[in-house]
Specification:
By secondary structure, the protein is of the alpha+beta class. It has 4 helices and 4 strands; from the N terminus they run H-E-E-E-H-H-E-H. The radius of gyration is 13 Å and the shape is globular. This is Large ribosomal subunit protein uL18.
């Protein structure tokens, strides 16, 4: 827990550059854009969201679905005029589903 607190001190999202928080459970991957200056969630999405459910069905493995979700997430963020973000991996190692989501978000046009 103290490791997570130390990391959170360094990764701060603003209105111009919100924080992209990733949470992964055994089945799903959740992502949110957060403005920490006024604690507010700007956008959130997970595998079963109405926007993403059709696109995510194309992936056969969890890693493939995470990459597709990253692309869909980036498209939705572009609609909110958000292109630059700060990536918060939420204490997870940067590999597997978390890395695939980040790669998909970069391919979708997010800059971090």
């Amino acid at each position: 827990m103290s490791r997570k607190i130390r990391r959170k001190k360094k990764v701060i999202g603003t209105a111009e550059r919100p924080r992209l928080v990733v949470y992964r459970s055994n089945k799903y991957l959740h992502a949110q854009l957060v403005d920490d200056t006024q604690p507010k969630v700007l956008m959130g999405m997970f595998d079963k969201s109405k926007v993403a459910v059709e696109a995510v069905k194309e992936g056969k493995t969890k890693v493939e679905r995470s990459k597709i979700l990253g692309k869909v997430f980036a498209e939705q963020a572009k609609k909110l005029n958000i292109s630059k973000i700060v990536f918060d991996r939420n204490g997870y190692h940067y590999h597997g589903r978390v890395k695939a989501f980040a790669d998909g978000a970069r391919e979708g046009g997010l800059d971090f």
